[in-house]
Amino acid sequence: MISLYHKIFTRGITIMKKTTSADHAGKARGRFSGGLGYVLAVAGSAVGLGNIWRFPYLAAKYGGGMFLLVYLILVVTFGYALIVTETALGRMTRKSPVGAFHAFGSSLPFQIGGWVNAVVPMLIVPYYCVIGGWVLKYLAEYLRGSSLKLAEDGYFTEFIASSVSVELWFILFSALVFFVILAGVKQGIERVSRVMMPLLVLLAMFVAVYSVTRPGAWEGVKYFLVPKLEDFSFMTVIAAMGQMFYSLSIAMGILYTYGSYIGKDVDIEKSTAQVEFFDTAIALLAGMMVIPAVFVFSGGDMETLKAGPSLAFITLPKIFASMEMGGLVGIAFFLMFFFAALTSAISLMETSISTFEDELKWSRPRCCMLMVLVMLLVGSASSLGYGALDFVKIFGMAFLDFFDFLTNSVMMPVAAFSTCILVIRVVGFERIAGEVERSSAFRRKKLYCFFLKYVAPICIGIILISSIANVLGIISL
Fold first, then answer.
1. pLDDT tens digit string along 97-112?
2. Which of 77, 313, 406, 476 is most enclosed, with most CB atoms within 10 A?
């Protein structure tokens, strides 16, 4: 495995020397070419695995159209406030999260706030690449015409327990991520995002149209799009908040880092609105792909819809196998799934490497090699957690499940709360407004100030408490 990584990075470092020599000549940071490059990169980060499989099953479980309505309201208020904040702080300081916090103070609270934001992507990207390897494996099987094999009972369980196979697919997916990262911001991240995001949207539209035109699918469409008051509950709000938090790349250090790569002429408010649109559109398409198809397959059985993460790897392959053109639909779905996983993993990896570059003052290839060690340690533990290392449990969870809980349920709320406190107590709303207004009209300024000051800290506290309560079995999410 190590020799494979060595070959990959020998080639990658050669690419890096050709594409980023200007950085070593004194250019401080990489840059996006403009607002579109930034929007597509952030949208690629936001549109990930959570949109494709997490959003549909949460929508199905917590009220369908009512969940969708609550989610949309949260995205344009709470989500908007945090996206603008992190992007503005990144552009203001020209730093990744640790440096951004340090720009306003060097005491322990500033160090903790910056490093919590920075460590989140370092822990997420290894296990995210494990799941990306699962997606790549399924895509390869569909391309080989093995759709019926994927639909067999027990196939997924046997696959993730096969340690060697899972590890190899994890390494392959990780290698793809590193190739893009080594090419730099403009030549790597932006170029890939410009190609993959439009393709992802087209593939999502194809699968969604095919799904909703199946006989009997209209009931699933109505359940997903039409809100009903009787479907509203406190848990609908909690679940929608958690999903919004997860899918918009908030509190992962990504928006700080990508914000530091944009020029002062990029309209932050407009770009944020475009990211909101992209994220919401893909979430809607994901719901339209999955929920109507499951309604047709199960005859409207809600328990099938609430299958959770297994929906993508167990339930949907069974559905595709029962369809005409199911193999083609499976290829389109998992190709889209792969694009979503890759663009999100790239943003997580870039944030981690940017932090190392800023704080250690190392070259980009050297920082990538450091992330290889992190990937081998955390990623291999996650990939083997259902196989060779299945006897090791942390609080009753396999490695992948534990890292997911630690980052998403504990560290991300803490990171977001730290950002809110930084703005409220230290930076001040006027400085944030001044940064945004360099290139934006900031039409939602009053809404921004209200939500960041009064609503966001409360919502973050609710997410943290409810997530921990869920793990302890006090509530069920």
1. 999 999 998 888 888 9
2. 313
